[in-house]
Amino acid sequence: MIIAVKRGASGDEVRELSADLEKQGVKVHLSEGDIQTVLGLVGDTTAIDAEALQAHHLVEKVIRVQEPYKRANRLFHPEDTRIDIPLQGGGTRSIGAGRLGIMAGPCSVETRGQITEVAEAVKKAGAGVLRGGAFKPRTSPYSFQGLGCEGLDLLVEAKKATGLPIISELMTINQLEIFDQVDIIQIGARNMQNFNLLKELGRCRKPVLLKRGYACTVTELLMAAEYIMAGGNDRVILCERGIRTFDTYTRNTLDLSSIPFLKRKSHLPVIADPSHGTGLAWMVPAMTKAAIAAGADGVIVEVHNNPEKALCDGEQSITPAVFAELMDTLKKYAAIEGKEL
Ligand code: PEP
Ligand code: MN
To answer: Whose CA is nearest to atom 8 of ligand 1?
Structure first.
């Protein structure tokens, strides 16, 4: 971090400012020029509040050189992180560090018949994780809100029947207990900056799929991951799920360039959600392939046995047949890239 000191600051004032900064655990190098005095802060500057410093009466400008996140930063953890999910019958399924994680299933669990049929189909096609929402964050309070606890029970039944690990969205802290059987906790776009929830997840030991908020920058996504990791849980998977832009031809704009960027800046696995990213089922195979080509460690895809009758997100849900075809292509992609699927 570099601090340009305001002209007219006395030597004593600058020394006092430097001493205050050193109390925060950094070393301060003073560089006094004829026109400008500059302080160079070295060491771990993550805990230094740049905005507060900017408001200091002696400070002209603050320039951050290092990213404000540490635990999620590749600089301090050069190797890719691999997240292992224990499987029911023993063994593990891994995501990251050369292992692609393909999560598939309906937006929402609707009936036993629906989740069982989809679970069996995606397993047969080669999916690694079964998705299914039980508590749904819907824009309208009059829309289907998910089956709640019953939906979670049906998802767990499908897990037991197929052996697939499961992922479901958690919306509030007090639901954490009933997510006991859920293997990966999904934090949705709307909750990416629910900091109390993120802190609580830092105390739990389950992998967390953290979706990018639709009006959040990639740095904010990494800072949200940092919240979870700072609490002691370093099993975070980042998810690009599209952001809101001026264009409306797709539901969101799937920001594929965030994938190589996040992979460069962080060691955490990064996956894409081409279903919410486009909102259009016919685009999902193309954008899945594009995400993998861009370096994603996997995807989360909505699959429904009868998309036209789906209670949520039918327009963006692909059928089991389309998913099976897509998996065949992904197996070839994985082989070309030397990755495990
Ligand atoms: C979902 O996965 O069904 C969902 C609601 O996702 P997002 O939080 O990305 O909108
Ligand atoms: Mn959905």
So the answer is: 188
